[in-house]
Write a structure and sequence with these properties.
Blueprint (H helix, E strand, L loop, with lengths): L1 E6 L5 E6 L7 E3 L16 E3 L23 H31 L16 H34 L5 H28 L16 H11 L4 H14 L10
Antiparallel strand pairs: 1-2, 3-4
Amino acid sequence: LIASAVDERAGGKLLIAAIPSGRTGITLHNDWSNIGQRQTDSGSATFERVRVEHTELLLDPGPLSTPFAALRPLIAQLHFANLFLGIAEGAFDEARQYSLKESRPWFRSTAARSAEDPYVLHHYGEFWVGLESVRLLIARAARQLDSAWAKEQALSAEERGDLALAIGTAKVAATRHGLDICNRLFEVTGARATHASLRFDRHWRNLRTQTLHDPVDYRIHELGEWALCGKRPAPSFYS
C-alpha cells in the first residue's frame, strides 16, 4: 500500500511510504461498487495511528525531486495506456470473430455475408487505423522511456518533459480510440450481439471506468499548451 502524508514538523514536507496493507490501523472498506473493473483501487480506507518504519519511507531522492525521480508517474501513465489498448484489442478480436461467424447481413445489403458488407468493412477499417495508431504511439513512448531511464540522474528536465508529452499523447489516443471501438463494435455485430451471455458490453464498462480516473480533458490541456505555446508539462503525480 502506498500512503502519503504531510509532515507538519518539517514545514509541510510531503512523505510517501510503502507499507503492508494488513498493518494494524489500516481498514480497507471495500466499498468500490462501479460499472466496470472492480480492482481499480478506488475504494475508501481509514488510517488510525498506523505505524510507519523509517525504512518504508521513500526518501531518497524524494518524489518529483529530480527529472529522474519524476519518471514514476510517467511509467504509471504508460501502463494505463497499454491497459486501455489491451481492452480495445480484446473488444476488436471478439467483435471480429462474431462478425465472421455469427453476424447476418442486413436485408437491404447486397452482400452474401456480413463480412462482405461495405459498411461493416468500413467500420473495421476505421477500428484498425485507430488500433495501429495507438500501438505506434505507445511503442514510441516506450522507446523514449527506455532512453530516459538509461540516463538516470543525467536526465534533463526537457527530456523528461518530452517523454511526458509522448506518453500523454499515447494515453489520449488509447482513450479516444478504445472507447470508440468498445462502443461501435455493436454496429458491426448487430442486435443479437447484445445478448447478456456474450458480455460484449464489459469492454466498454471496463474501459470507461478506467479512463475516468485521470480526466482526459486535463491531459489534452497539457498537450495544447505544448502545441500552441511550447510549454512542457510540469512534473506531478499524474503527468
